């Protein structure tokens, strides 16, 4: 978001392709809002005129347990 002291990070259960499509649809429409849902079901609503960029990372698997290095 523009003029924010740090970037907005949203962890989602959606695939990167689904998130990309949602962003593209919001930019193509006249809705003026991008609504994302995080992995806990909370909604994040971003006004499109304040959107600076969107970085979509690939899904990562989290390891559980300990490992010796």
Question: Could you characterize what this model shows?
Answer:
It holds the Pfam family DUF3107. This is DUF3107 family protein. InterPro entries: DUF3107. It comes from Catellatospora citrea. It is a single chain. By secondary structure, the chain is α+β, with helices and mostly antiparallel strands. Helices cover 19% and strands 14% of the residues. 0% of the residues are buried. The chain has one helix at 16-28; strands spanning 33-37, 43-47. The chain is built from one helix and two strands; from the N terminus they run H-E-E. It has one domain. The model has no long low-confidence stretch (mean pLDDT 84). The chain is elongated, with a radius of gyration of 15 Å. Strand 1 and strand 2 (43-47) form a beta hairpin. It has a two-stranded antiparallel ribbon with strand order 1-2. The N and C termini lie far apart (39 Å).
Keywords:
69 residues; alpha+beta; two-stranded antiparallel sheet; elongated
Q: For the report, how would you describe the main beta sheet?
A: 2 strands, antiparallel
What's the total count of β strands?
2
Percent of residues in beta strands: 5-15%
**Structural class assignment:** alpha+beta
Distance between the termini: 39 Å
Q: Which regions contain 5 or more consecutive residues with pLDDT less than 50?
A: none
Global morphology = elongated
Task: Provide a count of the helices.
Answer: 1
Specify Rg, calculated over alpha carbons: 15 Å
Task: List SSEs in N-to-C order.
Answer: HEE
Mean pLDDT over the full residue set:
84
Strand order in the largest sheet: 1-2
Percent of residues in helices comes to: 10-25%
* Whole-number tally of structural domains: 1
């Amino acid at each position: 978001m523009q003029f924010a002291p740090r970037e907005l990070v949203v962890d989602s259960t959606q695939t990167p392709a689904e998130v990309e499509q949602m962003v593209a649809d919001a930019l193509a429409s006249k809705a003026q809002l991008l609504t994302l849902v995080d992995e806990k079901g909370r909604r994040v609503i971003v006004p499109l005129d304040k959107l600076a960029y969107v970085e979509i990372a690939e899904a990562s698997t989290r390891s559980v347990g300990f490992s010796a290095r």
